[in-house]
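Q: I'm building a small set of examples for a reading group on sequence design. Run inverse folding on the following structure and report the sequence directly after it, with nothing in between.
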């Protein structure tokens, strides 16, 4: 792994042997941000799909009510 601050090659450790900067935490944070954005956009699309399904069900129920009232 390379140190994000000084770029020195370091062995498997949490801190750079050259400058003492923390290594693993900053890299995982940089990787985690784009995946979180993908997950949130997927969740928004799922919510939109659920809302569309609910609208379809409401419209179907309204159509049934109109048909029943027309029969009366
Ligand atoms: Zn370093």
């Amino acid at each position: 792994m390379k140190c994000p601050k000084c770029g020195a090659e370091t062995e498997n450790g949490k801190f750079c042997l050259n400058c003492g900067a923390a290594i693993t935490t900053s890299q995982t944070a940089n990787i985690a941000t784009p995946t979180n954005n993908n997950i949130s956009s997927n969740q928004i699309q799922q919510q939109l799909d659920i809302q569309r399904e609910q609208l379809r069900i409401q419209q179907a129920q309204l159509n049934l009510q109109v048909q029943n009232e027309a029969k009366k």
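The chain has a mean pLDDT of 82.
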